Amino acid sequence: MNPHSRTGQPMTRRTTRMATSDEQLRLMTRIARLYHEQGMRQPRIAEELHISQARVSRLLTQAAKLGIVRTIVVPPDGVFADLEEEIAAAYGLRDVVVVDVEGEADSVIPALGAAAAVYLETTLMEGDRLGISSWSATLLAAVEAMRSRPGGRFLEEVVQLMGGVGEPQVQVQATRLMGRLAEMTGAEPVFMSAPGLVAGATVRDAILADPKVSSVLAAWKNLTLAIVGIGSLEPSPLLRRSGNIFALDDQEKLRGLGAVGDVCLHFFDENGTLLDTDLNDRVIGITPDDFRAVPRRIGVAGGDRKYAAIRAALLGGWVDVLITDLGVAGRLAGRPDRHAP
What was the pLDDT predicted at 76? Predict the structure, then answer.
């Protein structure tokens, strides 16, 4: 082998390395085109080019690292991955689902319910113990949209997070929510056989002392996830009809304290800070501390009038998974125009 170049000067090691590198790049590009553009499998490429399959795999990996192969994910219409990731990062959430719908709370309920149903179907794990608030039209829509999973039981328990007794004409809806969810998942339903709101602390304490009720309190401490609506200061139609709402005077008191929303009738201000009032003594439901201790807390809410409540719930760490509509999501990300980049 002639150690000199065509000019008669000795070839340097650097020139040799460059030549070798150029050949590697050429082979790398050839393999990448065969694999990604022509769909040829790695064993066939190895046979075609007379190299080992291990080398084919190694060169494909290097091609990706060098930018010869660039993977681009193009979300289909109605999927807002960038927006979801932006909101999750901004508020410290584990997951966000943005639904392609906008408008007032009532108009977005069916779409949010359907999205929540799919989310539950795909993320529930065998042995999970699920807590759910009972006075939410959105959660009722979610449960109605759920499909049963083959294989029988996979949830241990479905537990009511707040009192499930209300006006008879709407009581059936809360009962149906729990019953259908238990049926779809094979779980044991744990009902809270008490109203969500009572006259005062004395009545509340007497009810909580009942063994049937105290057993529900124990179940709250073992939950692995919870799914709740996020309420605004103005109660939803379903909650209003149930009778489990504070009187107008109490609502004005909460408004004066800066309340913007609630989770399970625990009201918080615009920063998500729990308001310390004697009204908390009248609620029969999971305590704020027990709720925050649940490992995964899913909030399902949307509609223009709920934006302030949803944002506050995120800031206060009340939920760590959010399912909401596109309009609210844009505002949470500082993009009120849905078409903004």
Answer: 63
Q: How confident is the model at residue 18 (pLDDT cuts 50, 70, 90)?
A: very low
Question: What is the residue type of 258?
Answer: G
Q: Which of 101, 92, 106, 168 is nearest to 140 (CA)?
A: 106
Q: How far apart are CA 101 and CA 111, in angstroms?
A: 7
Within 8 A by CB and 6+ apart from 40, the residues are: 34, 48
308-337 pLDDT per residue, tens: 999 999 999 999 999 999 999 999 999 766
Helix (H, G, I), strand (E, B) or coil at 339: coil
With beta carbons less than 8 A apart as the criterion, state whether 312 and 233 touch. no
Query: How many whole angstroms separate alpha carbon 120 and alpha carbon 143?
Result: 9
Please report the DSSP string for 120-164 in residue order.
HHHH--TTEEEEE-SS-HHHHHHHHH--PPTTS--EEEEEESB--
